[in-house]
Sequence to fold (432 residues):
Amino acid sequence: MSKTRTIKVEALSRVEGEGGLHVRLQGDTVEEVRLSIYEPPRFFEAFLRGRTLAEVPDIVARICGICPVAYQMSSVHALERALGVAVGPDVRRLRRLLYCGEWIESHALHVHLLQAPDFFGCESGLELAGLCPDEFQRGLRMKKHGNELLEMLGGRAIHPVNVAVGGFYRAPRRDEVEPLIPPFEWGLEAAVDMTRWVAGFDFPDFERPYEMVSLSHPDEYPMNEGRIASTSGLSIDVTEYEQTFEERQVAHSTALHSVRKVEGTCYHVGPLARVNLNFDRLSPRARRVAAEIGFSVPCRNPFRAIIARGLETIHAYEEALDILRNYRPFKPSRVELQHKAGEGCAATEAPRGLIYHRYQVDADGKVTFAKIVPPTSQNQGQIEDDLRAWLPGVLSENEGQTALDCERLIRCYDPCISCSTHFLKLTVERGS
Fold:
């Protein structure tokens, strides 16, 4: 009789949040894979109801300490659509600048501290620091750049407070912007070095037939705006998101799973999806580095998403420098709002992938309905599918090694389920 084996990773390490993995095998056949997110539900959508729309950006920023800008930008765009408000080009550029800061700090953190250790057999970023001290220090310095930009433009590095529906509460002065230019010039070269470094890693031979989904804009690399596109040919307005994608409850996770509504299939969001769908809109320096290291699209290996993060970091530095160098203070920094009942939705690109918000507001400017779909819920089903395909090639009698190999794959997605300091706890059950 084939042996039944159960592998449990009670707490995933080097991911943002608390999650576990449960795998049941019958011989060499993978019978069940469950990526479980067991953090308590946080009810943000519920307690936004009854709040004034001006409070929303500050509240949703608290969903995540690493990517608060993504939640803020999605919320302000959706609420502006509900009110029929259009911001000017100056506000639009500052919003992209703020997003550049978040991409830099998030990608630098993930590359150097969370995923790179896997390629060196390290259990932690601190262990990697002993092997690669220069690269580790570079990552910390790059993350600091992102935080400094968020602090300058957003009011503080964690959970910025300067973002408003209609613009910003205050536009920065020129003398606040200029000090960031020299460190960002260094950072651009550091991002190039980082991307060359990760391109030399030994990547597993593992490709998947993904449907990749991201925003796509005709004139720029997508951050705040664009249509929703996919590698299968999908191209829809953001207003069609809920007719195309659907969240479904699964028993083993407090996070919902998103799928294609009609087909019931999972899909892939994040840097690899963005690069595949928008490669020609990356900055000139990012495209030159891609050619130098031999990175081309389509790329369907999730482990090589770390290279996509590197290319996006180059882009973020290059675009941020262009905005910083050419910035001129402006007034007013936000559009005056006229409250009215309405509904609006928007999607932006968090560092980890597409994020969708929809709100209804009443004539007094209070929220009556809120819907928020983060990247992790959209990737969770795809991660489980990847694990089913990955496991047969990494199974061994060493349960600890098998569990670590599974974690390596999960970390490719940089799943954002809030900050984790847990180490791996593995339980193995065997039966006949």
